[in-house]
Amino acid sequence: MGVLMKCILFLLLSGVFIFISWDSLTRPRSHGFYRFYAWEFMLGLFLLNVFYWFKNPLAPHQLLSWALLVLSAVVALCGFLQLRRMGKADSRRDDASLVHFEKTTVLVASGVYRYIRHPMYCSLVLLTWGIFFKRLSPAGLALAIAATFFLLLAVLCEEEENVRYFGEPYREYMKRTKRFIPFLF
């Protein structure tokens, strides 16, 4: 895959991200606004490292990469299934910046959500760094840091949105849980 092909793929996938994030892009203080930019940096990082995905598979950085990627998938799956099972998503929830499964009407505080408030974003952070460790480079590091920064901004905005929607129960939930890493952060 040459540079031109990577650019075309970046533009095509960016178009998909724009479509998904359209309502959020008109609301700069929504979590989806910042999530869009995180996705863009993650996509750039992926395209930067795509040729190195299976090179030198037993190198320490590759083993760390695979561990982060697997953990990312597990956390995402646990978070998504728990939200779907317990969150009672309702399309009548009036927030155009939310995609359907995010339109929960019940505060989910069990399963993985018992330990971290944002398993879906945690999985994206793990994915970002898993992609970064495929090939260590200054450009990759810059993209991974930028993606992580925008994911953190998305989380901060989402917490404000959740406090507005769920009120005091969400504030209490925030006191009992961490954002990304159980018992630490």
General description of the model:
The protein has 185 residues and is mostly helical. 65% of the residues lie in helices and 0% in strands. It is built from six helices and no strands. The protein has helices at 3-25, 31-49, 60-86, 119-132, 138-166, 168-176.
Rg over alpha carbons: 17 Å
The overall pLDDT average reads 93
- What is the count of helical runs? 6
The proportion of strand residues reads under 5%
Number of strands: 0
Low-confidence stretches: none
Largest sheet: none
Structural class: mainly alpha
Q: In whole angstroms, how far apart are the ends?
A: 39 Å
Summarize the structure.
65% of the residues lie in helices and 0% in strands. It has 185 residues and is mainly alpha-helical.
